[in-house]
Amino acid sequence: MVSANKEMAVYCFDTLVAHYNSDQIPPPSFDEGDHPLFVTWKKVVNGGEPRLRGCIGTLEARAIINGFRDYALTSALRDRRFPPIQAKELPQLECTVSILTEYETAADHLDWEVGKHGIIIEFTDPDYNTRRSATYLPEVAAHEGWTKLEAIDSLMRKAGYNGVITDSVRQRIRMTRYQSTAFTMHYGEYIAYVKNTRGAVPTINGLKPGTY
After folding, report:
1. Sequential pLDDT tens for the chain (212 residues)
2. Same domain? 59 vs 133
3. Which of 35, 61, 92, 110 is deepest in the core (most CB within 10 A)?
4. What CATH number does the domain containing 192 carry?
5. Torsion of CA 3, 96, 87, 65, to 10 degrees
6. Terminal CA-to-CA distance of the chain, rounded, Å?
7. Across the strands, what pairs with 58?
């Protein structure tokens, strides 16, 4: 099984830097494969808790080299919840790459473990008779300190449901649970990696020279 690793996070940073520089992306240092994946960007401000700046991926298996390239940019620049990440924010960024595994159909909306499983919910909105779906990665509920019920209710809101959440509505949920491997790298670690492996630190358009 392929696990998320340092080289994948480096490739995501490389992709974002290449975008700012209108340059070619250095070739990746990991092998091709087909897996569901996510790229998450967070911003660390004044040593505080990292704040989400973008998180987008795919629940379907796809070629991971193109997948990480595409979602590194999509999550950084086109997550509709946030303004696009600017080059000047790079020194405060950390990137988490996730490879999703072990998809299972859950017995019901509570058939999963906080901190172990990511969850995908699908349900019909009773107010509009429309299908809604959303996912949280395995680390989200634990990071937020949610119970399983709190996570489900939050995920229903994320899916766009604005009605009253009752137990009968929750019972209609079709849930898929999954697990993941993840690797997190801060920009400073990325710069150190590039310096050690390539011999020089990149100059980045939009970032003051010497700013690491």
Report:
1. 789 999 999 999 999 999 999 999 999 999 999 999 999 999 998 888 899 999 999 999 999 999 999 999 999 999 999 999 999 999 999 999 999 999 999 999 999 999 999 999 999 998 899 999 999 999 999 999 999 999 999 999 999 999 999 999 999 999 999 999 999 999 999 999 999 999 988 889 988 766 65
2. no
3. 35
4. 3.30.700.20
5. 20
6. 34
7. 37
Residues 73 and 117 in one domain: no
3-state secondary structure of 74: helix
Contact by Cβ (8 Å): 99, 36 = yes
Given a contact cutoff of 8 angstroms between Cβ atoms, the answer to whether 141 and 115 are in contact is yes
Do residues 36 and 100 touch, judged by C-beta distance below 8 A? yes
Domain housing 162: 110-172
Amino acid residing at 149: L
- What is the number of domains present in the chain? 2
Query: Which two tokens mark 63?
Result: 């070629």
